[in-house]
Batch of 2 targets.
Target 1
Amino acid sequence: MGRKHVCVLYGGRSLERDVSINTGTRVARALEARGHQVSPVDVDESLVRRLVDLNPDVGFIAMHGKGGEDGTVQELLEILGIPYAGAGVSASIRAMDKVLTKHTLLRRGLPTPRFHAFSDAAFRELGAKDALDIIADQLGLPLVVKPAAQGSALGISVVGEARDLPRAMVSALSFDRKVMLEEFISGRELAVSIVGTQDPRVLPIVEAVPKSGHDFYDFESRYTPGETEFNVPASLESAVAEEVERISLETYRALGCSGFGRVDIILDAADRPWILELNTIPGLTETSLMPAAAEAAGLSFEDLVETVVATAFEPKAE
Amino acid sequence: MGGKSQQAQGHERAEAGESRETCPHPCFGNEAVDEEFHGEKCTTWAHGGASGLPQPGRAPILAAIRNRDRDGGMTKRGFDKYEERYAERTGVMRSSAMRDLMSLTARPEVISLAGGLPATDSFPQDLFDRINAEISKEKRALSLQYGPTEGFDFLKEDIAEVMAAEGTEIDPAHVLVTTGGQQAIDLVTKTFVNPGDVVLAEGPSYAGALTTFSTYQTEVIHLPVDEHGLLLDEMDVILDRLEAEGRWPKFIYVVPNFSNPGGMTLPLDRRERLVETARERDLLIVEDNPYGLLRFEEKPLPTMYSLDTEENVVYLGSFSKIISPGIRSGWLVAPPPIYQKVVFGKQATDLCSSSYNQLFVHGFISSGEWREYVDRLRDIYRSRRDAMLEVLEQEFPAGSTWTKPVGGFFVWATLPGGLDTGDLLVKAVEENVAFVRGDAFYADGQGTSSMRLSFSAVPEEKIQEGIRRLGRVAQDQLDLYRAMGL
């Protein structure tokens, strides 16, 4: 890929704004180091106007969460005719909404924990609270309560008693109008990073081991240096690793992803993998999983970023 | 971790014909990686279990740091290579997800009732220029050089004048000039608290003090309050318990005038009783009074420092709210034995406060114009307080309660139904209004249904619009709670 004028979009209004600033800054620096012309843009209501003025060759969307990962900004770039790295509009929509993702996975026979999901309207208008005990019986306890669309593990809690479900749901509903209750599967947390569109390549599997005091890989574990230990490549029997890779690639394809992405998986005590979600714009901070995976594969951060940007010029998978 | 024999075992298994396909490590066809796993360099592959299969290794951190090479290999990284070396007291220094949320509140469209910022835009421009010109013309040498650790004598006289305005007479020799009131809190804590020592504080208490206390590994015990501040009968019970347990508090930290965040003012009878208790039971009172002059109605109440006759009170003051926070200027007044210790602590911290800034404060006070400025500030803040209280009445959900401050910057509101103000903040920010969640003002996780609302930095119309938005969000959340059976 020759020298390009890359516009790096970051910031925005989501709750992951700070993470996005970190990702965006690192991406911008990496591209500059490789000799590209970089225009960093902190996204706000002047975005379209600025993009028209800048007229970049390609865009790198370093925004996390709403606005950036849900197809919104992708749609805008399509309208403006600016090629961009990463998932297209419909893949973004499918991946951002965990409920939609899981239905897609189920249709493909891919393993994902059992779940039920509701919008807050179901509670306000249909008395869904009376179904909570039934759900706790069906799915068992503990349950994971999470907003359908939110990143960085914000709003997620693990609930051990049915009477704690309403509060957990209210917390999750702060972050999204739709909330999911999912079977809690105890196990090892694996992150599978994938790069490429036509012929996606799986990078070494990373295992995240949060320090004691965290039930799961929560927001603090993710972004506080030293809070989590990482094994990369994760120590897995080869048959297990192969299976994890296989279903991760299938997930990536099933959702129609392009460019790059990261599949989050729980490996249960019997070494069976369960797919939690796919992130179409994985974090690229100092404590993020994908750069660690890339490094283990011999790809520097700059290599990784350039490889991803190059995919912008291929047609989207969706 | 296993020694040579275990590594040799792994090596032998490979040599005994175990093909690469059965090696438990996914090698990715990377020669360098193979070398790592099968050679002696691999220190993180721990054998274990009857099956002989490697378990997820937990190699020592040092080995992990050594193994952080770029050719792949089993790398275990904490991403913080200083992890093992940080002092224990930093254990509390972590970023919080919700604190990160506050960066979203800086956007211009957000009405922030969060920050307790003084209204410095009303600072008289002309006076600012004159003070600086005078320093430049007459006092440049003094401003550029180190000053005495305790602060300049002329500034201590100024401080005595300012305290006299609140009815407290002091001996300037007992004054230590500090870099902001925050440093005064830090010095007192540094002087008295060993890790694990108990300090009493109101519940809720000033978050800045709680942070300082935590960095000295203090155990903070919050005391119950009502809308007038500390409940002294309850305090006595707690003191009895602590005495029986042999854990007498090093001091009690109190903000008696329109406190941050509570907006409460301790009435005279309770002040007298607290001073009495301090005398009878040998309790040290740390009285923090940054807002005292910003009183909107009634006369100022005597400080506990002035009521005390037994050297049981350390008084902390600040110019941040009556001049400017940017000049980082505050003070403490301490009984002589304590005084020496805090001076020593100050010397060890920053040698002396900024000479330039001290001269600025001196210029401001000695001009005499500070009284007029404080009067003007009072008017501004009073009007804003009125606007907030009025709209709270109209817009907050039934069952909400809030304090009615007679001065200062803050209203402390508590929402009904056990509403969680942390959840509420996320929704509020979406609606472009912000506040500080109540649990920031407790060391023990209380305060989850309360919030601090600041009226200092926002004009009346914005205050009203902000409270209106907040009221709507809160009501909506209450409806959701009802729908959830909560």
Target 2
Amino acid sequence: MARSLLRPFGRAGVHLALGGYTLIALFPIALILINSVKSRSAIFDNPLALPTPDTFSLIGFHKVLANSNFLLYFGNSLFVTLTSLVLIILFGAMAAWGLSEYKFRGNRWLALYLAIGIMIPIRLGTVSILELIVKLHMVNTLSALVLVYTAQGLPLAVMILSEFVRQVPKELKDAARCDGVGEIKIFFQVILPLIRPAIATVAVFTMIPAWNDLWFPLILAPSDQTKTVTLGVQQFIGQYVTDWNSVLAALSLAVIPVLVLYVIFSRQLIRGLTSGAVK
Amino acid sequence: MANVSLKELRKSYDAKSDVLAGINLEIAHGEFAVLVGPSGCGKSTLLRMLCGLESITGGELSIGGQVVNDLPPAERGIAMVFQSYALYPHMTVYKNMAFGLKIAGEEKAAIDRRIRHAADILKIDHLLDRLPRELSGGQRQRVAIGRAIVREPKLFLFDEPLSNLDAALRVKTRLEIAKLHRQLGATIVYVTHDQVEAMTLGDKIVVMNDGHIQQSGTPLELYQQPQNLFVATFIGSPKINLFTGSINAIDDGFLRIGLTTGQEISAEVDSTGANVGDAVTVGLRAEHIVENSLGSDVFSGEVTIVEHLGEANFIYLTLQNGQELVVRGDGNNQVQIGETLTVSTSSSAFHVFDAGGRAMRRLRPGNMISSKQSLASKEKIL
């Protein structure tokens, strides 16, 4: 069916469409990268022009890196994102295994409760979250952000991983039990290695929103010590004057870790997405 | 000693119905026991209870004299081979076999020695570094058996291990399992729905249906003296011919039975408890019928289908009243569809079942048809 639908376009048409989409997706990133290495006047003269020897300038990067706080923000972002990622995957996979493998009272309700978490944006609960964090004396700590991002990522992680855990053949678990492998060891040594593609998928889906988030750092951890990159960039954006060189340089630097992680996970990701689709 | 003893073993998932209702079975040390029955008869559940993967609702299960009802699988001294092999896909063959031993805390050298030994027996030495996905079905099957062997269990459990293999490989692997049984001298419980597998492999066959053991015994016992209608129809290929009828007279050692085909036959069965006028079912195996009229009981009908097997033909006859009769004929005979064929059998070949489906014991259960008959067939050969 899919094949006959594609026929009028042909292979070239498909590539044309995908190539076009790639261009649209990459355009803003390219724009940031190009302008981050141009002088201020060149940015305003012609934002789309490539840097020439005349207009080339690393002033933005100099300013950003000289501002020692920026490396701190960068570290904060990295810490928050990676810690959340590890927690989401660990707890998500454990919950997925528990919900799909063991029958207990309230199993279905618990699964439904987690599914609701996907449908309702966590930002709707910002006020209560803030109240809670204040009561816990966790305002202006990175742990507060880690907790919120973990909560935000878990529902989708549990949903995706459950589907994959269910696909692990029952006999494999039985065989492990016959081999005398305990339930926890079965989870870590048999189940986890088998759902690796799904874990990569979850990693990408949860990593990017956490890295890009501006909302919660602004509300829960706006202090100088706990700012994340997205929040830190705001200091270059003023009410009357915006230091575009620094903003673009900071954003260029902020893109790098996400790109690196994406490249690491993407091979697995493709396998994860397709195996989920076909089966 | 690894004898297995099941006493009134029960399994139910809810209070209403039993999946297994009071199973009693003794399996001697070194015996090859085959559980066989149609799907849903409870044979796999029983195997999983032996293994420890299903809880036991009631009764007592002991392996090697020790009650193991509540022991986890690993402590029962068993190893199981699964239908889908259940090899860990992300581990090499070697690691697959070593995994359970490593968990049990065995020493590295001992693990290695055991794996080399098992690999040697199964001729999979050259595959130890491969991943399961790089192996053929037959090789995976061997690895699965190897993983069972290295555990040096008291009892091997096989859950339909051959049903994922193609026909040729199935026959070959069947032979290998039989050889392995002799080589290891192990006690084996083997589940299958294939009666040929059951007959060829088992020292003891346990026929199950509806959560009950219908009959257990040697392959020959089951074939020659099926205790009830279910076992008679389950064992043997093609399926046993069945007639309905009623007892006309009870002679000395013979029952004279009027069939609904309008014909009277005499069956050589133990008539204890039978009364004149009782409704009975008469069974007659295709291979106990010959294509001539020399036997004591003669049938004739029109040939509707002939299946050629080479050494034999399965000839399907339709008798006068529409009843179908399968005859195993000589493969050399050219039988034409539509012709009328007269066939006969001996009174010792009949199986007779009472209204409740219980068999009356056959008095001369051998495969011989009759002395007159065998003489006749010998003459034909000469």
